[in-house]
Amino acid sequence: MTARTAHATVFGAEPEGRWAAPGRVNLIGEHTDYNDGFVMPLALPHTTVVSLSRRPGRLLRLHSEALPTGTAELALDELAPGRVPGWAAYPAGVAWALLTAGHDLGGADLYVTSDVPTGAGLSSSAALEVACALALNDTFGLGLGAQEIALLCRRAENGFVGVPCGIMDQMASARCAGGHVLHLDTRDLAIEQIPFDMAAEGLRLLVVDTRVSHRLGDGAYARRRAVCEAAAARLGVAALRDIPAEGLEPALARLGKETARRRVRHVVTENERVSRVAALLRARRARETGPLLTAGHHSLRDDFEVSCPELDLVVEASLAAGALGARMTGGGFGGSAIVLAEAEGAPAAVAAVAGAFAAAGYRPPRVFEAVPSSGARRLPH
Ligand code: GAF
């Protein structure tokens, strides 16, 4: 059954349109977005697709193909943070963010399908939010641009779902372009689309999903963010982005706690790595980014302390098998890693990771290629 037919079967009405939003993988720039810093995600070919039909009244009905838990029914005028459990909190949060921003919505039925892996650190939540926002924006003629949509989706996640994430994932899903990485300044949201064609340089970028479930809601992410904000306040800057690389040592000397020093060192050095990777990609020297990716992993493992044994093993095993660079990607505590390898060396790196996982008694990882794909869009009817 196609999604269109499924929509009609569940809701008794043909969808008026379908909208797709991708998951993302981040090349470099981790835990920098809530410090006003720099990030460099690319959209994956995996998308969440939402079909929508309007309905009379002010009820929002939500159905996910993946979850046989039935249809969630929510009154638009009763949406409030903390009241909607499970996956429906994301679409409901988007409607809430739109309504509280003063936009006019009516009743709607939304049917959701997705092939973005969940819990894999690949932004399935942002893909769901952005696809829903796009569907509501187009259908109710709200006239919002991609950046406004990303900001509203972050507001949904922060204020309604309760995850204190930064802006990277929503901007990646809304604004990435096929064949490019999105070099984003998360302070003013200025973007640079940098061409990213690994095949042309004889390279491959692989995503390794460790299948260790990653959850940002358990407090560790929020604690990292709070330490960074407290350190910025202590250093008298608006955000850690304002500490330049050459100002790192004096800044560290002013921080009392070792934990704060480590977190600050990660953020400042990571922003510097994003700039260096951007310069190499502009010069079509992607091969040379490998050591920067690996340095980013070590910083996330040792200074930011958001890695886990499975992610570390992907990095160690792939590098030992000749990969050019590797790092965890996304929030961490599980989820996925990326591996940059020579095209002809990629199979050996994948085999080495699979072998190391088997030897360690871990579940086999899922591996696929990161092909830079389009951001959110309306699909042809
Ligand atoms: C998660 C968050 F949602 C992002 O905002 C970002 O902070 C990322 O972790 C870490 O770079 O994906």
Automatic annotation (TrEMBL):
Domain GHMP kinase C-terminal, residue spans: 279-353
All copies of domain GHMP kinase N-terminal, residue ranges: 92-174
Cellular location(s): Cytoplasm
Reaction(s) catalysed (UniProt annotation): alpha-D-galactose + ATP = alpha-D-galactose 1-phosphate + ADP + H(+)
Keyword Kinase among record annotations: yes
Binding site for ATP: S64, G119, A120, G121, L122, S123, S124, S125
Pathway field: Carbohydrate metabolism; galactose metabolism
Family matches, as Gene3D superfamilies: 3.30.230.10, GHMP kinase, C-terminal domain (3.30.70.890)
Site residues by UniProt (Transition state stabilizer): R24
Keyword Oxidoreductase: no
Signal peptide feature range: none
Domain Galactokinase N-terminal positions: 6-54
Binding site for substrate: E30, H31, T32, D33, Y221
Superkingdom assignment: Bacteria
Entry binding sites for Mg(2+): S125, E157
EC number: 2.7.1.6
Record keywords: ATP-binding, Carbohydrate metabolism, Cytoplasm, Galactose metabolism, Kinase, Magnesium, Metal-binding, Nucleotide-binding, Transferase
Active site: D169 (proton acceptor)
Matches recorded under Pfam families: GalKase_gal_bdg, GHMP_kinases_C, GHMP_kinases_N
UniProt family annotation: Belongs to the GHMP kinase family. GalK subfamily.
Matching PANTHER family: GALACTOKINASE-RELATED, MEVALONATE KINASE/GALACTOKINASE
Function of the protein: Catalyzes the transfer of the gamma-phosphate of ATP to D-galactose to form alpha-D-galactose-1-phosphate (Gal-1-P).
Protein name from the UniProt record: Galactokinase
Species whose genome carries this gene: Streptomyces sodiiphilus
Source lineage: Bacteria, Bacillati, Actinomycetota, Actinomycetes, Kitasatosporales
